[in-house]
């Protein structure tokens, strides 16, 4: 099943927002909603998504999009919060 119990407890309650880069508020609000969907968040934080990545398709990103989304989840949930929001790198 998609929902697996997290392998570790979240160290903090997550950041409260994403910093807008120009006109990115709709994208940021969507990413924030997805980030607070526990089964999806845990799927990425636990690394289970790596088994489902098709890195060889000519039509896709080779897993780059999923890796960046997983990185965002780690920034939002794993890193000690230096601030209440996160900025894309």
Question: Could you explain the architecture of this structure?
Answer:
The chain has 89 residues and is mainly alpha-helical. It has three helices and two strands. The protein has helices spanning 25-35, 38-45, 64-77, and strands at 17-18, 85-86. The protein has a two-stranded parallel ribbon with strand order 1-2. The longest helix has 14 residues, at 64-77. It starts with 16 loop residues before the first strand and ends with a strand.
Outline:
This protein is 37% helix and 4% strand. By secondary structure, the chain is mainly α.
Strand content: under 5%
Overall radius of gyration: 14 Å
Q: How would you write the strand order of the largest sheet?
A: 1-2
**Alpha carbon gap, first and last residue:** 32 Å
Structural class: mainly alpha
The helix/strand order is: EHHHE
Show unreliable segments. none
What is the topological layout?
Layout: E1 17-18, H1 25-35, H2 38-45, H3 64-77, E2 85-86
Parallel strand pairs: 1-2
Key structural traits:
two-stranded parallel sheet, mainly alpha, 89 residues, 2 strands
